[in-house]
Write a structure and sequence with these properties.
Ribosomal Protein S5, domain 2, MutL-like protein 1, colon cancer, nonpolyposis type 2, binds magnesium ion, 9-stranded mixed sheet, binds adenosine-5'-diphosphate, alpha+beta, ATP binding
């Protein structure tokens, strides 16, 4: 067999491959866009979806907007207003830091940005393909002035139009829509004080609708229903030695659902953690009837320098210092609250 020569891949190929690793499905794109709205200080976020986000996904915020002169590079890979040096990573408080999301989306979809900063007399609109400004043949691709409110609206159309295999694998728009609603629900619950809405194009009432003045518990009630929200116990703890603090709403021993619902935020990031999932299952196995599972919303804060958020392109998995000890401490808090609630219940029923 003759030896094949090694060639450098075209940047467009490299970028599309990388984009596919960050954006697996509409819900990943939405999560990135949502986090950008929150990073921009938005207090209102409205999401509109068509065909599970595969055809059309639009997100409008009232945040600080993007400067006109940044519009030319905003969708290039590794352009960001959030991180300057590697060291900043250990102090990063924004969701974003590596300037990959908009670039990635523009490599696998048609992306349009309409944005207005508070000090600009008008909004600007720009369209992007493969990280660059784009326009139909013969037209100028420069951002165009237009009417618009302060903030940013991002429209993503025809997701995976250039990745037919990926597109074919995502066969069910309703399943994709459910995943989007799930992401929005979780962010809405965690970010009380910000109003969220998520609906399908052409419908009046959305699947998610929260207001700026509703509490975490109100939002859980709005999204998951009273049957869950009325059975929740509040749990709060802080441990200096382990450098963590947490707040949680956990279902009591009288409540159970078919599958565990775990809304986990670590340093305000929606993440997954096998160790915390396992701990929750352990806590409730002895409490609930066989096949019953809890609802747990847990917001855990850890010293930023004790956590590595840069282990995965989707930032979904995180690891932190003293993970086992912290998880154990949380487990004890949960058990304490659950036992207390159980005791008072027994007490009440006896009197
Ligand atoms: P990152 O969030 O990691 O910086 P992104 O590709 O998600 O990278 O966004 C690139 C930049 O575009 C951000 O740093 C920010 O300056 C700007 N941006 C994106 N979305 C918004 C938004 N909704 N409002 C204001 N600025 C935004
Ligand atoms: Mg971002």
């Amino acid at each position: 067999m003759s030896t094949p020569s090694i060639r450098r891949l075209d940047t467009s190929v490299v970028n599309r491959i990388a984009a596919g690793e960050v954006i697996h499905r509409p819900a990943n794109a939405l999560k990135e866009l949502l986090e950008n709205c929150l990073d921009a200080g938005a207090s209102q976020i409205q999401i509109t979806v068509k065909e599970g986000g595969l055809k059309f996904l639009q997100i409008q915020d009232n945040g600080h907007g993007i400067k006109k002169e940044d519009l030319a590079i905003v969708c290039e890979r590794f352009t960001t207003s959030k991180l300057k040096q590697f060291d900043d990573l250990s102090r990063i408080v924004t969701y974003g830091f590596r300037g990959e999301a908009l670039a990635s989306i523009s490599h696998v979809a048609h992306l349009t940005i309409t944005t207005k900063t508070a000090d600009s007399p008008c909004a600007y609109r720009a369209a992007y393909v493969d990280g660059q400004l784009s326009a139909p043949a013969g037209q100028n691709s420069d951002p165009k002035p237009c009417a618009g409110n302060n903030g940013t609206q991002i429209t993503v159309e025809d997701l995976f139009y250039n990745m037919p295999t990926r597109k074919k694998a995502l066969r069910s728009p309703s399943d994709e829509y459910n995943r989007i609603v799930d992401v929005v629900s979780r962010y809405a619950i965690h970010n009380h004080g910000v109003s969220f809405s998520c609906k399908k194009v052409g419908t009046m009432t959305g699947e998610v609708q929260t207001n700026t003045n509703t509490s975490t518990l109100d939002n859980i009630r709005q999204i998951y229903g009273t049957s869950v929200s009325s059975e929740l116990l509040f749990c709060e703890a802080e441990a200096e030695a382990l450098n963590y603090s947490m707040k949680a709403y956990i279902s009591n021993a009288n409540y159970s659902m078919k599958r565990t619902t775990l809304l986990l935020f670590i340093n305000n990031r929606l993440v997954e953690s096998d160790s915390i999932k396992r701990m929750v299952d352990t806590v409730y196995t002895s409490l609930l009837p066989k096949g019953g599972h809890p609802f747990v919303y847990l917001s855990l804060m850890i010293k930023p320098e004790n956590i590595d958020v840069n282990v995965h392109p989707t930032k979904q998995k995180v690891h932190f210092l003293n993970e086992d000890h912290v998880v154990e401490a949380i487990q004890e808090e949960f058990l304490k609250i659950l036992e207390n609630a159980n005791d008072s219940r027994t007490f009440y029923t006896q009197t």
